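dumping this here before i forget
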Amino acid sequence: ILNSAGQRDVQDTVAALLSLGERAERNHYPLSALKLRLIAIYQLRRSGTLGAVNQADALLSSRPPWLAAQSAAAAAATWSYEKAQMSLEHRGDDRAAWRDLRTAEDLYASVADPSHVAVVLKQADILARAGAVQEARARLATVLQRCDAGPCRADLVPSIRTTLAWVILLDPDAEAADLQSAKQLLQVALSSGSASLDLVERANIWTNLAYAQARCGEPFEHALLTARQLLDGLPLEALARAREVRSWTDLVEGLAE
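structure:
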């Protein structure tokens, strides 16, 4: 189903996932059914259209009671994480998101699940936007060190680097060495993690790189052009997610003049 998701409408993909989930439920595979529902919610959330968001909300409104069991801690953590994502991306409710992230963090920690890294990424974003830039930087730097030293979700390492870079760039008083560090983090993320990034994510990183280069007093036009070319090549279903990044490219160009 997911292999063909790029060639079909989001609603068709979601319908296929939910249908398979219902079959799993009927055959007494509740965990498989839950995973399929969470994948459907993720697809809807990423789509970003009003109808998709409303459908994702509806799917999240009925939490399976068996998630309260300790043996279901990892699945319950993922459920709370998806709720937090919805609050952050489509409701602008940082307080609700923080509560759900704390729940997810505790649940992941109880089973030593490396997915706790995803929680830290979102917590750092909330902290940075609230003005607690140093705390956000410290959390991300600690997680990155742990990932370099031991088991970690490799698919999230590029996001750790890009989020840490972004937090540095949020500081208007960042020193030259910090700005260079942010630029290098973004360059490494693009070179080593591009396979795990979609076009919108790559465009956002290229735009942030342009901003970092401008802050460093370096040429930034190539990075900004690359970001815009990626955005121009997006499929229709990704346009809603791309609006904010496209606005960010215009803002970076204006700030750099």
